[in-house]
Amino acid sequence: MNDRAALDLLVSQGPLTRTQIGELTGLSKPTASQLLARLEAAGLVRTTGNVTGRPGPNAQLYEVNPVAAHVAALAVDQLGITAAVADITGQVLGEERVGTDAVDEAVPNRTARLVATAVDGALAKAGLEREQLHGAVIGTPGALDPQTGALRYAPHLPGWHSRRLKEELAEVLGTPIVIENDVNLAAVAEQHDGAAQDFDDFVLVWADEGVGAAIVLGGQLLRGATGGAGEIGYMPLPGAPLSRGGDRSAARPDAGGGFQRLVGSPSVVELAQEYGAPEVRTVDEALERDEVRAEVARRMAMGLAAVVAVVDPRLVVMSGEVAQAGGEALRVLVEEEFTGLALPRPELRISDIDGNPILIGALRTALAEARDAVFDTA
Q: Left if phi > 0, otherwise alpha if psi is -120 to 50, otherwise beta: which for 344?
């Protein structure tokens, strides 16, 4: 327990002296010295210079040994896969983006090959081999059904619906694989690095090409019996066509009906065109128009009210392309429209993650898994 406490401190606070580790853990100097000797012998920590400019002998600094483990994080979308490889400290060493056309459609196990191509590209940039990976986390639309192992709620991702998907990916990469819902991973990123820090009860609403939510209660992600908790894109709302049977086009994740047809990126662009701006082609351009921003805020507030009435979170984080394009102006309008729609009044924030929140959340999850395995068994 003392060893793990010291390792967690070194991960969260960076290089520390023996004295600092003793003070932060409450351990005596001899016990801290023995602890560091054990961890150094196990290859988990290393010295990294000295503290200078102080009276007396210079104290040695210790840090987690970056090569103790490496992980891969991946974010999947309709157009391709982004992979990042990091050491156990969280330092990203290599990143690669591959399109869906990187592997020919006729190749057997094409999806697994696409994943391998992305990971191998990131490994090459990091100067690493597959054998040095301790695990990988993949963020994808939809969720694995815990009963069947099949990916559900993502018919627009052809090739990802094999019941042996997890095993096929693990076989190709040669490392344990976790497949997680992409919006859940975005919530992990917000909880550690973004707008939801210090919140144990919050909802992240993702409005992008697809629409979904991650629900965190008591600090834990709510998944549901089939992994579908938070699939609010299917939620029926006034003004939206019904999505009966969960039917959606493979070409567009927002095809069909429900909340997704009201606030998904393609629908926001279509709304601007309906309002007399046929030249609009992007969400940013659409939400520059006051009338579009006001209507999207009204729709967003209506959907949030339904979620808040059931979950009653302390915080709602708006994320994805629509939230980022609308920014603070959209948030203010949503807050105004929300008044009176639901009795609970959670705080409303725009995501402030710098970078791809899905990839960052996948990396956070992969690092937690690797540290548990490496730190606890060594």
A: beta
In sequence order, the 6+-apart residues with CB closer than 8 A to the CB of 104 are 110
Q: Distance between CA 204 and CA 209 in Å, rounded?
A: 16
DSSP reduced 3-state for 349? strand
- Residue-wise pLDDT tens digits, 98-131: 998 888 887 888 899 999 999 999 999 999 999 9
pTM for the whole thing? 0.91
Strands 70-77 and 347-350: unpaired
pLDDT, residue 190, reads 97
The torsion region of residue 230 among left (phi > 0), alpha (psi -120 to 50) and beta comes to left
Q: Which strands, in side-by-side order, build the sheet including 59-64?
A: 16-17, 59-64, 45-51
> Rounded to whole angstroms, how far apart are CA atoms 369 and 371?
6
User: Is the distance from CB of 21 to CB of 60 less than 8 angstroms?
Assistant: no
What's the chain's average pLDDT?
91
Torsion angles phi and psi, residue 160, rounded to 5:
-110, 15
